[in-house]
TrEMBL record:
<feature type="compositionally biased region" description="Gly residues">
    <location>
        <begin position="765"/>
        <end position="776"/>
    </location>
</feature>
<dbReference type="InterPro" id="IPR036942">
    <property type="entry name" value="Beta-barrel_TonB_sf"/>
</dbReference>
<feature type="region of interest" description="Disordered">
    <location>
        <begin position="1"/>
        <end position="20"/>
    </location>
</feature>
<protein>
    <submittedName>
        <fullName>TonB-dependent receptor</fullName>
    </submittedName>
</protein>
<feature type="region of interest" description="Disordered">
    <location>
        <begin position="592"/>
        <end position="635"/>
    </location>
</feature>
<dbReference type="InterPro" id="IPR037066">
    <property type="entry name" value="Plug_dom_sf"/>
</dbReference>
<keyword id="KW-0472">Membrane</keyword>
<keyword id="KW-0675">Receptor</keyword>
<dbReference type="GO" id="GO:0009279">
    <property type="term" value="C:cell outer membrane"/>
</dbReference>
<feature type="region of interest" description="Disordered">
    <location>
        <begin position="757"/>
        <end position="776"/>
    </location>
</feature>
<keyword id="KW-0998">Cell outer membrane</keyword>
<feature type="compositionally biased region" description="Low complexity">
    <location>
        <begin position="610"/>
        <end position="619"/>
    </location>
</feature>
Length: 947
């Protein structure tokens, strides 16, 4: 792995010295891209990202989620990908998540195997975010959202400042969000046997959150060191309702009962979490080894208050029983009080990785990565339902190594076989509470062609359960409506959540096979296929209630004397063995719609001569600011363009965002990516040895540039042209294949340099107007006027097929087939699922489409009389976001419209909901559509202004 980062480019570059007389053409990459032997799964440049309509990097990552999600880990999932900034590991996601998307030059997504080269296990994809080297903005964003049927609303306000310059980054962000309460009554739901209670049961909690972050990063060019620091503080509060308190009264003979509901005392659950986070990273090169240190510390305090239920029964006389009425205040039973659960989590994570290339083989350099880590985590919790507080802590020491060995290279004697490399990794972690755990992996990567890459990886590792699953406090959720698979009826039960200190360490043994194919018949498209086989022992699982769960863990389910559900304990359990197989397909496309404009198409006339109506006789186009020609030489702008190309070391990608769009479009290939050959040619023209010296204006100043190109224009516009006065680079461009001056090329260049809206031929100087040398050199005229105005599109589609998902409860059985509905892990496991993200962006207008598909599934009943199976239909939802960058749409380069974007969103456009029916075709109350999805179609408006 090699990354051309801001601080480690020289140490990682390995230029070869050519033979004398050899002409070397070097390609260019954007600084910060990864230079590795594994092709990316997907790539997105700045123009693609503009089409996402995103407000932050976090939104960008949501838009490309189908490409970043791992398909290798089967039923357990791969989690959040590994993130890099400019090819360097960062301390945490919060370090960059709120950066505006305009700061991104490119995003690259790589397969899971690449994660090993940064000290991670191969179960997460790698996302490398390349930032622009010079960027500054202040953005504010206001958002309002609500379902189309009302009931509740959500607001969000955010302000972000980011400045990137001279190898440094400074970022501040403040975000406030507020969501109102939604009750069952507002969706027309009723609770059996409890009339008037729906308005005291919440479907969506009332919540409020505020977060502030600060990030700083700096690259010290002289020493090749970079440093980053970040700090964040966050508070979140929520309030939810669990119905009303009640007391059951019995007559002495036990034959009559009356339930009194206290309408003045709804059962609430209140949660507040305060989080303080800080982290940092240090990157430095030591004798050719690129080394990164990261550290992250988080302190989180959480308090949950739960109103107690009276759970009281009383004997009264039959006469007294008749005096009470529904919704009466509780007669003399008093306030039952409040239960509370608190937790305090302290986490410190640190890691050091160093990567180098110690050995050179005939097929290439051997890449080696070594990592070491120290972590500490402590969880303290207590609750009023447990007799003693819980305090668990873990100290972790870890180390590992990864080696990638190139075996064959396409251009050696085995060229017909393609590129082959082997990867080996191994490591350990010593935990204070679980002892020493080990892991290893081995893989092979084969690229028979440039467009096709194949890989196979074997992964084995031991994993301890998290401290959260071991020591979280007990929390009881009262009056939760559940479907009883044994009786086929709906009921209410208390759901218990929390930690389980008796969990075991898990052993995972996986295979992963992948293929990455750049489609030859579709520009800018890649197809990724993954096949994962996962086998695990002693698996930590957070279960869900089902007939299979009650069969497997009967002691976790409590029933009353009449068989009704009263309590379900869903704290984590250990499963003896799990088996899964998953096949995943991903298609990622990006590009432009329509035919690319030809080089000669400028102003609508062949040869590039603008129409006469473009400029009046005086030489300045209508509407252009006085003192400056619309197509003439702008010394200040040219000086900036020249500085952009010549200030960056040869072989690295200049910041093309600083180049005018009309010129930048001429530097792109057919897929809209920077073309290394075109950029190298432009660099040669801008930074030629005979033209690199500064004129009177200083280096890159207007004096020398304008006079130099005025002389060029004088020579080429003379009649006949004075070619001896042209630099060798321009003469080379004018020569044909036979080495002689090509008349057609000369004609085109003369048309560009000597256009009618400039000074007369011969190059006589024109006084006034701030122009020198009769207008001089016009880069836009030479390389094409007007940018590529075609629409840009992107499409990312991922489809997962679960071929196997089984749980073995003990060595001798029983075996639960979760695909067949014998689900222990909660919810359902469909065989098919898919996700789509796509969009189009054209001249300031954008549309983004998100789609999700969940296949049909089932939950098996207990198989007893009265029990019932449940059948879940498939579900397809689409989200649409349309937006307009008003400054671009209305051609406003200045003023308050510049940088102003208005977005309209509609989630679940067709108001789709999943249908759930039992064997009789009846939908149980617990699975009513509004209980499964109380939101439905969701509308919003977002206004964002960038300053």
């Amino acid at each position: 792995m090699k990354a051309q980062s801001e601080d480690a480019t020289e140490a990682q570059a390995r230029p070869e010295v050519p033979d004398a007389g050899t002409i070397v053409v070097q390609g260019t990459r954007i600084r910060g891209q990864l230079i590795i032997d594994v092709p990316p799964i997907a790539e997105y440049d700045a123009e693609d990202i503009a089409g996402f309509g995103a407000g932050s990097i976090a939104d960008v990552l949501e838009a490309i989620a189908p490409a970043t999600g791992s398909g290798s880990r089967g039923g357990r999932g791969g989690g959040r990908p590994v993130f890099l900034i400019n090819g360097i590991r960062v301390s945490s996601f919060r370090e960059f998540s709120n950066y505006p998307p305009e700061s991104i030059a490119k995003v690259e997504v790589f397969a899971e195997e690449v994660a090993q080269r940064f000290g991670f296990s191969p179960d997460q994809r790698v996302v490398n975010i390349v930032l622009k080297p010079d960027f500054s903005s202040l953005t504010t964003e206001v958002e309002y959202e609500q379902p189309d049927r009302g009931g509740y609303s959500r607001t969000e306000q955010e302000a972000t400042f980011l400045k990137i310059a001279n190898g440094g980054r400074l970022n501040f962000n403040v975000e406030v969000n507020d969501t109102s309460l939604l009750t069952e009554a507002e969706r027309g739901l009723e609770v059996d046997g409890q009339p008037g209670v729906a308005e005291f049961r919440s479907l969506i909690a009332d919540s409020f959150g505020v977060e502030a972050t600060a990030n700083y990063a700096r690259a010290f060019i002289d020493s090749g060191t970079s440093l980053s620091l970040n700090l964040a503080a966050e508070r979140n509060k929520s309030r939810s309702l669990s119905g009303l308190d009640a007391v059951t009264l019995f007559a002495p003979d036990g034959t009559s009962a009356f339930r009194i509901i206290d309408a003045d005392n709804p059962l609430e659950r209140r949660l507040q979490t305060d989080t303080l986070s800080m982290g940092g990273s240090l990157n430095k090169n030591f004798s050719g080894w690129n080394t990164t240190f990261t550290a992250d510390a988080v302190r989180a305090d959480s308090m949950t208050e739960i109103d107690r239920r009276s759970d009281t029964t009383a004997l009264v006389t039959a006469a007294a029983l008749g005096t009470f009425a529904i919704d009466a205040a509780l007669p003399g039973f008093g306030d039952p009080g409040v239960d509370s659960a608190t937790s305090q989590t302290t986490t410190f994570v640190s890691k050091a990785t160093t990567t180098g290339y110690p050995i050179t083989l005939p097929a290439g350099d051997v890449s080696a990565t070594f990592d070491a880590g120290f972590d500490y985590k402590q969880l303290k919790s207590e609750d009023t339902r447990s007799p003693l507080p819980i305090s668990v802590k873990r100290r972790r020491l870890a180390g590992g190594a990864n080696v990638t060995v190139p075996v064959l290279k396409r251009d050696d004697t085995w060229a017909g076989f393609g590129d082959v490399s082997l990867t080996f990794a191994g490591g350990f972690e010593n935990l204070s509470d679980f002892g020493t755990l080990k892991d290893w992996s081995a893989g092979v990567n084969w690229s028979p062609f440039d467009s096709l890459s194949l890989s196979a990886t074997r992964i084995w590792r031991e994993v301890a359960p998290s401290l959260t699953t071991l020591g979280s406090p007990r929390i009881d959720l009262l009056n939760t409506q559940v479907f009883d698979f044994t009786t086929g009826q709906n009921g209410f039960a208390t759901i218990i959540s929390g930690g389980n200190p008796d969990l075991l360490a898990e052993t995972q043994a996986d295979w992963k096979f992948s293929a990455n194919w750049r489609l030859p018949f579709l520009d800018g498209a890649r197809l990724q296929a993954d096949y994962g086989i996962n086998r695990s022992r002693d698996v930590t699982s957070s279960p869900g209630f089902s007939a299979a769960f009650e069969e497997a863990f009967p002691d976790r389910v409590t029933r009353g004397a009449g068989g009704q559900l009263t309590q379900i304990d869903l704290r984590p359990v250990t499963l003896y063995e799990t088996r899964s197989r998953v096949l995943s397909f991903g298609l990622n496309m990006r590009g432009s719609i329509g035919k690319a404009p030809e080089r000669g198409e400028r102003g609508g006339r062949p040869g590039g001569v603008p129409p006469a109506s473009v400029a009046p006789a005086g030489g300045r186009p209508e509407g252009a600011p006085p003192g400056r020609s619309g197509s003439g030489f702008d010394p200040a702008r040219f000086a900036e363009m020249r500085k952009t190309f010549c200030a960056v070391p040869e072989g690295e990608m200049p910041d093309l965002s600083a180049i005018p769009e009309m010129f930048r479009a001429r530097l792109m290939d057919a897929d809209g990516n920077p073309d290394p050959e075109k950029i190298a040619a432009a660099r040669a023209r801008f930074c030629a040895a005979d033209g690199g010296e500064a004129g009177p204006g200083g280096e890159g100043g207007p004096g020398g540039d304008s006079e130099r190109f005025a002389a060029m224009r004088t020579a080429i516009c003379a009649d006949p042209p004075q070619l001896d006065g042209l630099p060798p680079q321009m003469l080379e461009r004018l020569r044909g294949e036979n080495g002689e001056i090509d008349p057609e090329r000369l004609k085109q260049v003369r048309a560009r340099f000597c256009a009618a809206d400039d000074a007369p031929q011969g190059g006589s100087s024109q006084a006034g107007g701030g122009r020198r040398g009769g207008g001089g050199f016009n880069p836009a005229a030479m390389f094409g006027r007007g940018g590529d105005s075609r629409a840009r599109y992107f499409l990312s589609l991922n489809h997962n097929i679960t071929l196997e998902n089984e749980v073995l409860l003990a060595a001798g059985g029983p075996l639960f087939d979760q695909l067949a509905g014998e689900v222990l892990s909660g919810g359902t496991i469909p065989q098919h699922s898919a996700r789509l993200e796509g969009g189009i962006f054209w001249q300031g207008y954008g549309l983004r489409l998100s789609g999700r598909y969940t296949g049909e599934a089932e939950l098996r009943g207990a198989g007893l009389n009265g029990s019932n199976d449940l059948f879940f239909g498939d579900l397809v939802t689409f989200d649409v976001r349309v937006f307009a960058d008003l400054g671009q749409v209305l051609k406003q380069e200045d003023g308050w419209l510049k940088g102003l974007r208005v977005s309209l969103l509609a989630d679940n456009v067709f108001d789709a909901r999943r249908s759930v029916v039992d064997s009789n075709g009846v939908t149980p109350d617990s699975y009513e559509p509004f209980r499964i999805d109380p939101v439905g179609r969701y509308l919003g408006i977002d206004i964002r202004k960038a300053f």
